[in-house]
Amino acid sequence: MRLEGRRALITGGTSGIGLALAQVLAARGVRVVVTGRDAARAEAVAATLPGAEAIGVDLARPDDQDRLVAEVGRRWPDLAILVNNAGVQVNMPPVGLGDSGLADALRDEVALNLAAPAILTLGLMPVLAGQPGAVVVNISSGLAIAPKRTAPVYCATKAGLRSLTRGLRLRCQVAAPGIRLVDVVMAYVDTPMTAGRPGRKLTAESAAVAVTAGLERDLDVIWIGKTRILSLLDRLAPPLAARIMRGG
Q1: Do residues 116 and 84 lie in contact, with contact meaning Cβ atoms separated by under 8 Å?
Q2: How far apart are CA 112 and CA 144, in angstroms?
Q3: Residue 1 falls within a domain, yes or no?
Q4: Of 69, 80, 121, 202, which has the highest C-beta tally within 10 A?
Q5: How confident is the model over 43-100, as pLDDT tens digits?
Q6: Residue 98's domain is classified under what CATH number?
Q7: Domain coverage including residue 18
C-alpha cells in the first residue's frame, strides 16, 4: 500500500503505540487525524505533526462512537486508513473470585476495546469504500492467543477483535473488495499501560515502524516482536504457551 498522501484516523493517538504510529505515518506523508479523550491533548499532539488534525472523543461511550463516525463522514470524507488502536487494560488481583468491584471498569473495557472498533469499522465502511484502496488496522495482542489471569476481560476483548477482523475481512471480500482488514498482533510494548511492569519490552516506536512496514507490504496479519512464535507454540504445545503467558 502506498501511504503518502492518504488520510488516516488513529484512535488513542495521544500516547503509547497510537502516538508512535501517528508520528511514523506522518513522517511517511500520511495526513493523520488523532483521537483522544482529552481534546486539548489531542490538539497538542496534532500540532506537532505536519498536516495533522485532532478530535476529542471517549470511545467507551456509545454516543461518542456515533459522533466520531458522523464527524469523519463530514470532515474527512477522504479517509483511507482506520487504525483501531485505543484500548484499556483492567488489571484484577492475581487470585480471588468475583470482579473485585471493577464491574463499571470492565464494562468500559469491553466497550472501548471491542465495541468501538466494531462500530467505527462498520460505520465508516461507506467512507472507506469510496477510496481507491483502503485499510482497517485492528491492534490486537499476543494475549488474544494465550491469556493471562490478571486481565481476563482484556484478553477476551483482544481475542474477539481478532475474530471480528477475520469476519469483516470475509464480508469485505464480497461487499467491498477495495477494503483490507489487517490484524496487528501486538507484543509487550513500553507504554503507559505497561508502566511499572517487569520484563523486556519493545519500544512504541519500533512497534509502530513494524506496523507501517507491514502495511506497505499489504500483509493481512502483522506479527510484532515474538508473537508469531507464540502463535506457533500455542498450536504445537498449548500448555507451554499458557504457562509462559498466564502470569502476565
Answers
A1: yes
A2: 16
A3: no
A4: 80
A5: 999 999 999 999 999 999 999 999 999 999 999 999 999 999 999 999 998 888 889 9
A6: 3.40.50.720
A7: 7-245
